[in-house]
Amino acid sequence: MKNCIIQKLGFSIIFLCIILTIFFLGTIIYFILIKGAPIVSWDFLTKAPRNAMTEGGVAPIIIGTIYLILGAMIFSVPLGLACAIYICEYSPKSFIVNIIRISINNLAGVPSVVFGLFGLAVFVNFLGFGVSILSGSLTLGILALPLIISSSQEALMAVPHSIREASLSLGASHWDTIKRIVLPTALPGILTGVILSVGRVAGETAPVLFTAAAFYKRGYPKSIFSEVMVLPYHIYALMTEGAHPDKQRAIAYGCSLVLLLLVLFISGFAIVLRQRQRSSYG
């Protein structure tokens, strides 16, 4: 009887936490929708800012944000997956490997402004890339690495060892087993980490502030060495540094809604891929 009461109390607490989480998430989304929906239109999505960013749209800013997200993922996903494969499949089980895993997990908690300062020191100044898409993408890629490595490790370790043994017993090499059996089975978990990384990378302001963002720039970026306007920094600039706060505040809410929809679209696309992969190997 006592255990039953404790169990019901535990489930009630869990249910309450879920309700509170959904409530706060719904409140944020509702607030952004109410404030931003009147601003968002086809012209807003397809035109550039004008008149001291009090009119026009955010098309170059959306493109710049997409460039940074894609650049970060192109850099971090292969590198993070390779690190996870090495740690889980090839590295000797030793004390040093455990330290590396703990270090990766701790690195995920480092404030993003520290990554921004690192990108400024290494990519912008030392390597001479300047304030550019390349510097910002590499910095955001390093920011996303710990999460991708950790989620990929968990996904790889969740694959039953018996599947590996069965493949090896049939004459497949270790790499063929990883490539044809382990990775496809673990791919849904890996994509989950990528989805979370996209959400974090898309909303970061401090790293791009030091490495990639321009307060205002005419036209679209012409190369990976161009400065770029991005949605998170543009929102910050409109809310804190604008000379016409009444007009720019409304545009900032519109940018917030566009950023939210952009992240949801990319995440939704990745979720569809994950579900298809899960149904294929489920």
Q: Mean pLDDT, rounded to whole units? A: 85
What is the assigned CATH homologous superfamily of the largest domain?
Answer: MetI-like
The CATH top-level class label of the largest domain? Mainly Alpha
> Order of strands across the biggest sheet?
1-2
What is the ordering of alpha helices and beta strands?
A: HHEEHHHHHHHHH
Sheet with most strands: 2 strands, antiparallel
- CATH topology label of the largest domain: MetI-like fold
Structure summary, number of beta strands: 2
Using the CA coordinates, give the radius of gyration.
22 Å
- Structurally, the number of domains stands at 2
Ends distance: 38 Å
Tell me the helix content.
over 70%
Report on the structure:
This protein has 282 residues and is mainly α. It has 2 domains: 1-36; 42-280, MetI-like (MetI-like fold), CATH 1.10.3720. Helix content is 77%, strand content 1%. It is built from 11 helices and 2 strands. Strands 1-2 form a two-stranded antiparallel ribbon. The radius of gyration is 22 Å and the shape is globular. The relative contact order is 0.15.
Outline the fold blueprint.
Blueprint: H1 2-36, H2 42-46, E1 49-50, E2 55-56, H3 59-90, H4 95-107, H5 112-126, H6 133-157, H7 161-169, H8 174-203, H9 206-211, H10 231-240, H11 245-281
Helix pairs in contact: 1-11, 3-6, 3-8, 4-6, 5-6, 6-8, 7-8, 8-11, 10-11
